[in-house]
From TrEMBL, chain A:
Keywords recorded for this protein, A-Z: Membrane, Transmembrane, Transmembrane helix
Transmembrane segments: 235-260
Database matches in Pfam families: Uroplakin_II
Alphabetical list of InterPro entries matching this protein: Uroplakin-2, Uroplakin-3
Keyword presence, Membrane: yes
Region Disordered: start-end pairs: 294-320
Span of the signal peptide: none
UniProt superkingdom: Eukaryota
GO CC annotation: membrane
Name assigned to this protein: Uroplakin-3b
From TrEMBL, chain B:
Name used for this protein in its record: Tetraspanin
Principal location class: membrane
Organism: Carassius auratus (Goldfish)
Cellular component aspect of the GO annotation: plasma membrane
InterPro entries hit by this protein: Tetraspanin/Peripherin, Tetraspanin_animals, Tetraspanin_EC2_sf
Localization: Membrane
Gene: LOC113059242
């Protein structure tokens, strides 16, 4: 019952606020219908069943228009909607509908486990709600685990506007030291929010419902990123294997070539020409290769005209 | 072997050596391009100590030029039909071959360590961005330039900045979730919408990650050194085969 009463108030006052703008409102058909029914000089907060049924019906019809009774995450697709220590909420348009000059909307942000603590403190009617749990010590181990921060004046969030692109960042002040500053939430906790309507004297006038549980992701440490080798690419395997094989093959062939050339140096008959006579040459003396005692250098220029290069002595072939 | 066949073989050796000399000179030029690092991404590989791609490029500069000189010597040795020169040519070419192999293998192996996946680059960014050490300044400058020019944010996306703890978060985390380099800017270099960028409105922030760009640039350097070096080596392998046959045919 307690929660439906604010809804009834909401409905009546919404109609009330619409009356002057009745022809400017976009939902003229619905407003006209209600204005005819409820344009009665006296609407009291009586639990009249007919009024309750009609208002419940109206509430059902109005919920599609984005009226909120609890804090909600913004509907925009912001990348930082929920980070490890901040949350972006919708601005509290049309949450409270009483006319309350000088009233302000405040936000209670705290761990979801502290909902009961807060409600108990409020119900025991402590005089100064705003300094109940200052931000700097709010999340210490034995503390209340919630803090209050100001969102804005009630008059800044009227019901006839509901821009969905407006947002409110919880945690915008970072790690701050004021009593009611908009500080960051504990890393990785599950948080709940509630709006409060506080009047100019600092007394609580009204409050919304608690929001759903919002779980903040835990901040990951850098050493959770494993920067070792991930995988070997195909290119690496191909290049390494083929080049190693090629280098080994080259070395092998090089050694084979050296062996072959060294082995074929030792034996083999050589034929040389003594003037114009071809005779096989026998190594009758223990001579080195380079010495050709049987060649007569004086006749070498003539030899070119009479014989092919394969039968010439080696010295002659080089000169030609 | 017949004289004509030997002459023919000599011509083949000279032709292959000429092509290998040109290829070696091109390798020299490409390796200089890699070393000069026109994309200025050297700090990303040097800060983590994995700059072997550039070390391989330095080796390729020397081997490329050495291939050029040695192949010209090889042309001379083939013309001279001298076994001694050809032997010297073969030995020198073999040594350069080994060094170039080392360069190609080093470049391609190191690439896998550095940019196989985005983890190393991401961790380095989170650790060194906004750090006040020398390495931190280099990384900060490099990342700022990359994020602004390539229009990207973070390694895999802006989420990197708020999912992980980082030096940037320690220093500026209470005001900024990610650096302002991630924000779209006007032609006057002013941030287009600072408030929108700070909450991550999709039209005001670059939402793609920079890793793809970094990976493509470093891969380009690696392929220049390793794949081109590999193809030069295959050509040189063929040349050396023919040169060895020529050597055996010489007296």
């Amino acid at each position: 019952m307690k929660t439906s009463l604010p809804s009834l108030q909401l409905l009546f006052i919404r109609v009330d606020s619409y009356l002057p703008d009745i022809f400017l409102s976009t939902d003229t058909s619905q407003v006209d219908f209600y204005s005819r029914i409820y344009l009665h000089p006296f609407y009291k907060m009586k639990t009249n069943t007919v009024i309750r049924w009609m208002s419940l019906l109206s509430i059902w019809m109005w919920t599609g228009e984005g009226q909120i009774f609890q804090p909600e995450l913004t509907s925009n697709a912001f990348l930082a909607k929920v980070t490890s220590n901040t949350v972006i909420l919708k601005q509290p348009y049309c949450v409270f509908n009483q006319t309350c000059p000088g009233c302000e909307i405040w936000l209670v942000a705290g761990l979801c486990s502290a909902k009961g603590t807060f409600d108990a403190l409020v119900n025991s009617s402590t005089p100064n709600i705003l300094s109940l749990s200052p931000y700097p010590t709010a999340f210490n181990p034995s503390s209340n685990n919630f803090f209050l921060t100001r969102v804005g004046l009630l008059s800044d969030f009227p019901c006839n506007q509901n821009p969905n692109d407006q947002y409110f960042v919880v945690g915008a002040d970072g790690i701050c030291s004021g009593v009611n500053c908009n500080g960051v939430l504990p890393d990785g906790s599950t948080v709940c929010f509630k709006y409060l309507l506080i009047d100019a004297n600092g007394t609580l006038v009204n409050s919304s419902d608690w929001s759903g549980n919002i779980t903040l992701p835990k901040l990951l440490a850098l050493n959770t990123i494993s920067d070792g080798l991930s995988a070997r690419s195909g290119a690496m395997v191909v290049i390494t294997t083929i080049l190693c094989v090629a280098a080994a093959l080259l070395l092998l062939l090089f050694l084979i070539m050296l062996c072959v050339t060294c082995c074929t140096k030792k034996d083999g008959k050589k034929i040389s020409v003594m003037n114009s006579i071809r005779i096989p040459r026998y190594d009758t003396h223990n001579l080195k290769e380079r010495v050709h005692p049987y060649d007569n250098p004086a006749y070498q220029p003539d030899l070119k005209n009479y014989s092919t290069s394969s039968t010439l002595p080696r010295d002659g072939a080089r000169k030609l | 072997m017949g004289a004509r066949a030997l002459t023919c073989l000599m011509c083949v050796v000279i032709a292959l050596n000429a092509i290998a000399a040109a290829a070696g000179l091109a390798l020299f030029a490409v390796a200089i391009w890699v070393t000069v690092d026109g994309y200025k991404l050297y700090p990303i590989s040097s800060v983590s100590g994995k700059d072997d791609i550039f070390a391989a490029a330095w080796i390729a500069i020397f081997t490329g030029f050495a291939f050029f000189l040695t192949c010209i010597f090889g042309i001379f040795a083939a013309l001279k039909r001298s076994r001694g020169f050809m032997m010297a040519y073969l030995i020198i070419m073999f040594i350069i071959f080994l060094f170039e192999c080392a360069s190609a293998i080093t470049a391609v192996t190191n690439r896998d360590y550095l940019i196989g996946n985005s983890n190393l680059v991401k961790k380095q960014m989170l650790q060194y961005y906004a750090d006040s050490s020398t390495q931190g300044k280099q990384i900060t400058q490099t990342w700022n330039r990359v994020m602004e020019q390539v229009e990207c944010c973070g390694a895999d996306g802006p989420a990197d900045w708020f999912q992980y703890n980082s030096t940037f978060k320690q220093m500026f985390g209470s005001t900024y979730i990610w650096p302002l380099s991630c924000c779209k800017r006007l032609s006057t270099f002013e941030v287009e919408d600072k408030e929108g960028c700070m909450v991550g409105k999709a039209t005001t922030i670059f939402s793609k990650g920079c890793f793809q760009y970094i990976e493509s640039v470093l891969s380009r350097y690696t392929w220049a050194v390793s794949w081109y070096g590999f193809s030069v080596l295959m050509l040189v392998f063929l040349t050396l085969m023919i040169a060895m046959i020529y050597y055996m045919q010489l007296e």
